[in-house]
TrEMBL record:
Protein's name according to its UniProt entry: Endonuclease V
Entry superkingdom: Bacteria
Keywords noted in UniProt: Endonuclease, Hydrolase, Nuclease
GO molecular function, one term: endonuclease activity
Gene Ontology BP, a term: DNA repair
Length: 167
C-alpha cells in the first residue's frame, strides 16, 4: 500500500493530518482517507520542522507501517547534499526503515541541489524530489507518473485539501 500525507496547522494550536492510501502510482482515486486531529503541536523551528510534524504523522502511519511500501510527504527527506535529515528522513527512521519515504518539495530548499527536479504537465516550475529507502531517481520517476495533468499530482492536491477542510 502507498500513502500520501499532509498536515494542516490550525490557529488554535491543533493540527489536522490527512493520509490518502492508494494501491498504484497511476491511481486517480484513493482507496481510503484517514483524518486525525492532534490537539496541540510544537512551535515551528527552522531546519527542525520534523519536531512539529512527526508527532502528527505517527498516530496515522504507525498502525499501518507493516502494510505500507512508500509514504509521500510534502517536503524534503534530506535537507542538503551531505544528507542532513529532514522530515522525511525522521519519518523513515520512526517507521523502522521498513517503509520508503519520498519527499516532494514545492520550492527549492536553499542548499539542496541534491533534490531532483521533476517537471509535470505544462508547468515550467519543477517539483523537488528526495527519498530514503528508495533511490532518488526511482522516486522521481514514480512522482512523474502519478495521475493528474498538472504540476502537482491529483492525489497530492486532494490530500492537501482534505487536511485543510473544516477549519
Amino acid at each position: 500500500m502507498l500513502a500520501y500525507v499532509d498536515v494542516d496547522y490550525r490557529s488554535d494550536g491543533s493540527a489536522r493530518t490527512a493520509a490518502m492510501l492508494f494501491e498504484a502510482w497511476s491511481d486517480a482515486q484513493e482507496t481510503k482517507l484517514i483524518l486525525h486531529t492532534t490537539p496541540q503541536v510544537a512551535a515551528y523551528q527552522p531546519r527542525a520542522f520534523y519536531l512539529r510534524e512527526l508527532p502528527c504523522l505517527l498516530p496515522v502511519l504507525g498502525p499501518l507501517a507493516d502494510q505500507l511500501e512508500v509514504v509521500v510527504v510534502d517536503g524534503y527527506v534530506t535537507l542538503d547534499a551531505a544528507g542532513q535529515p529532514g522530515l522525511g528522513w525522521h519519518l523513515f527512521e520512526a517507521l523502522g526503515q521498513h517503509v520508503a519515504v519520498i519527499g516532494v518539495g514545492k520550492t527549492a530548499f536553499r542548499g539542496s541541489p541534491h533534490a531532483l527536479p521533476v517537471q509535470r504537465g505544462n508547468s515550467q516550475r519543477p517539483l523537488f524530489v528526495t527519498a530514503a529507502g528508495i533511490s532518488a531517481l526511482r522516486a522521481a520517476s514514480l512522482i512523474k507518473q502519478m495521475a493528474g495533468p498538472h504540476r502537482f499530482p491529483s492525489l497530492l492536491k486532494r490530500v492537501d485539501q482534505a487536511c485543510g477542510t473544516s477549519h
